[in-house]
Amino acid sequence: MTLLNLSDLSVTLRVRPVLSHITLDVRPGELIGLIGANGAGKTTLMRAALGLVPFTGRASLAEMTPGERGRHAAWMPQTREIAWPVSVEALVGLGRVPHEGRASADEDRAAVDHALSTLGLEPFRHRTATRLSGGEQARVLLARALAQETPLLMADEPIAGLDPAHQIGTMKSLAALARDGERGVIVSLHDLGLAARYCTRLVVLHQGRIAADGPAGEVLSPALIREVFGIDAFYEDTPRGPVFQPLDILGPGPDS
Questions:
Q1: How many helices (H) and strands (E) does the chain have?
Q2: pLDDT of 78 strictly over 60
Q3: Among 212, 182, 177, which residue's Cα sits nearest to residue 24?
Q4: CB atoms within 10 A of CB 22
Q5: Following DSSP, what letter does each residue of 98-145 receive, concatenated?
Q6: What confidence score (pLDDT) does residue 83 get?
Q7: CB-hemisphere CA count at 13 Å for 185?
């Protein structure tokens, strides 16, 4: 079963090619880390997959009606804006909108409760969302996506702005969602250490194309890290999981 299919997908924005001939499938049970340098096209790829920007080629989600897409894929964008001073519980409950008329009140309540519990947000349930810190708001918005209970979850930098403990906790929660075998998750990440440790598969974007696609141990080779990120790094599989550590910038550094 394929949850998302991109075939020969290309995007040009303001006459500038951003993505070129992307082919990618996402299946249940996968936690895919989308990695690459700034400007590689990670956000654009996910937005094109959802039909939010013009593209050529094929994107299976873009072929669905808005209602079908809302029940199939949940989307957490990079922008962390909460416009109204509503409670955390009410905001997370907005994830149930695509199921309106299709789910009971008890099912909606259970989905919200589970999302809050999964991300450790139960103590915030009755707090005003706009009064939370940026990191707390990011977790609330991810909880809204979880409450949507879709087969596919797409999140753009879901751990940005979180402290180390909540970064690890969030990645563990996403890994658990994928591990149940019923959902697929694709996230864009800049922390290659957490990507290597928790993602079942890494897709590397470089200059708008897929430069590598596979398990971390195969993808994070010294040669690829040098080419894509311009750094030297240390990678090792240990009994506690993969360890990735950036070591130095290749060539003149930013302070030279």
A1: 9, 11
A2: yes
A3: 212
A4: 24
A5: GGTTTS-HHHHHHHHHHHHHHTT-GGGTTSBGGGS-HHHHHHHHHHHH
A6: 87
A7: 32
Mean local confidence (pLDDT), 97-101 = 95
- How far apart (Å, rounded) are the C-alpha atoms in residues 107 and 155? 24
> Please, are residues 198 and 175 in contact by the beta-carbon 8 Å criterion?
yes
Tokens 């994928």 correspond to 178
Q: Which two three-digit tokens encode residue 170?
A: 């969030």
Q: Which fold has domain 4-79+152-249?
A: Rossmann fold (3.40.50)
Average pLDDT in the 84-94 region? 96
**pTM for this one?**
0.92
CA distance 75 to 145: 6
Instruction: Determine the Cα–Cα distance for residues 204 and 134; give it in Å rounded to an integer.
Output: 28
Q: pLDDT, tens digit, for every residue of 165-219?
A: 999 999 999 999 999 888 999 999 999 999 999 999 999 999 999 999 999 999 9
Tokens read off for 16: 């500038």
Model pLDDT, residue 182: 86
State mean pLDDT over 85-91: 97
Contact 23, 9 (CB under 8 A): yes
Residue partners of 64: CB distance under 8 A and separation at least 6 = 72
Query: Tokens 């519990």 map to which residue?
Result: 117
Contacts of residue 249, defined as CB under 8 A and 6 or more positions apart, other chains included, come to 230, 231
SS3 38: coil
Give the pairing of strands 231-238 and 241-249.
antiparallel
**SS3 (DSSP) at 67:** helix
> Looking at the DSSP assignment, which residues form a beta bridge with residue 205?
210
**pLDDT above 90 (res 252):** no
Residue 254 has pLDDT above 70, yes or no: no
